[in-house]
Amino acid sequence: MDIVAHTLWAAAGAAAVHRRRPLSRGTVAVALVLAALPDVMHLLPIAAWWALGDGSFAAVRGYALASPGQEPWLPPIVELWSHHLHCVMHSAPVAAIVTALAWGVRRAFWLPLLGWWSHIAIDVFTHSADYYAVPVLYPFTERGFDGIAWTTPWFMVLNYVALVLVGTWLLVRRRRPSGS
């Protein structure tokens, strides 16, 4: 799924949770950042290559918008870092370790992590084997589930129609949580 849709779904989730339990703006902001972060992180090595090396903005843009097999040439080390960051950020075992560490420190579940978890859960089913299948069990395997490619036009329309309907429902059924 695209970064904007991930962020909007996380915002809808935060709005739904906020109905039952007050959430601070900071909590919501961190959850939204974490919902987008997995798709941003793997661009960092490419952006660094552009900023510090011989790369170009066209390569960053080309990579961000490319279909599988259509990515621009990248130096092997940049490609390796980008690939593994993508795998790490879409990995349920990695997210589980971070969640457990946060739980150990806070002695409670850190709610903003739901943004990251929502990203992983959505991407498992919205990426096909041909369109960046999500390695949800990385580092144990890099195989991914063969879902629907989010770039499929009818699916993109359906996704954004669903977001509009959910957003409308949340606005119409708006209720302030007790204590706010």
From TrEMBL:
<keyword id="KW-0812">Transmembrane</keyword>
<protein>
    <recommendedName>
        <fullName>Metal-dependent hydrolase</fullName>
    </recommendedName>
</protein>
<dbReference type="Pfam" id="PF04307">
    <property type="entry name" value="YdjM"/>
</dbReference>
<keyword id="KW-0472">Membrane</keyword>
<feature type="transmembrane region" description="Helical">
    <location>
        <begin position="154"/>
        <end position="172"/>
    </location>
</feature>
<dbReference type="InterPro" id="IPR007404">
    <property type="entry name" value="YdjM-like"/>
</dbReference>
<feature type="transmembrane region" description="Helical">
    <location>
        <begin position="28"/>
        <end position="52"/>
    </location>
</feature>
<keyword id="KW-1133">Transmembrane helix</keyword>
